[in-house]
Amino acid sequence: MAVHDKPSQRKLPAWMTLNAEGENEQFTHDTNENPNLSFMGTVHYCRTEKECGRACESLMKQVETQEELVIGFDMEWPVHFKTGSGKTALIQICAEEQTCYLFHVSCMRSLPEAFVHLLKHPKFKLVGVNIKNDLWKLSRDFGITVKPLIESRVVDLGELANETLRSGQRWSLDRLVLHVLKMRLDKNDLIRKSDWRMETLSAVQQCYAATDAYASLLLYNYIKMNP
């Protein structure tokens, strides 16, 4: 009687390996061993409607020759112990790994029409952790319609990771970066809870904000390339 070899099992990428409790073993180790993730590209910091308009126009031209343009997306707002979340102060978008745009909307009279048009463009796909909640907040803060965008052109990275892992984890951005990219995302409260409505953001604030959007783009690209 012939002896048949057992069919080879697919070797999963390291980021998809979970322990019995559904957690990656990386979470049980000192995360200081992991390198920091920091955006090192060009930051376009836009404080006026005109600057934001030019940035959005550049992105519109970029998407003309593509079937789809994926944008890492995030937002910042002040949080008060007594009054809770304030109005959205900063919007971060990263459409390529070398460039991030920061729209300091708290310095503008209103949410720029150019940015609203960008959100409506059918070729843009927005990705981020808990991004749907962010967009609903943007809708409440500025009275714009986001439901069609959320229903068709938004990817929550936590949901995407869980679909691939077949798990039910609750992911924060820094936790997902550690799990997937094996890198640390700085979430220093002194920066995270800093005043995002100040007239001009510091270089440290700008780097922190850009890195979050950059991390979302990296995560999406990595998960898609390593299913």
Question: Could you report the average pLDDT, rounded to the nearest whole number?
Answer: 88
Q: What percent of the residues sit in helical stretches (DSSP H or I)?
A: 25-40%
CATH architecture verdict: 2-Layer Sandwich
| Main sheet summary | 6 strands, mixed
Order of helices and strands: EHEEEEEHEHHEHHHH
Q: Which outline best applies? A: globular
Could you give the distance between the termini?
38 Å
What integer value in Å does the Rg equal?
A: 19 Å
Low-confidence stretches: 24-30
Placed side by side, the strands forming the largest sheet appear as 1-6-5-2-7-8
Count the DSSP helices: 8
Tell me what portion of residues adopts beta-strand conformation.
Answer: 15-25%
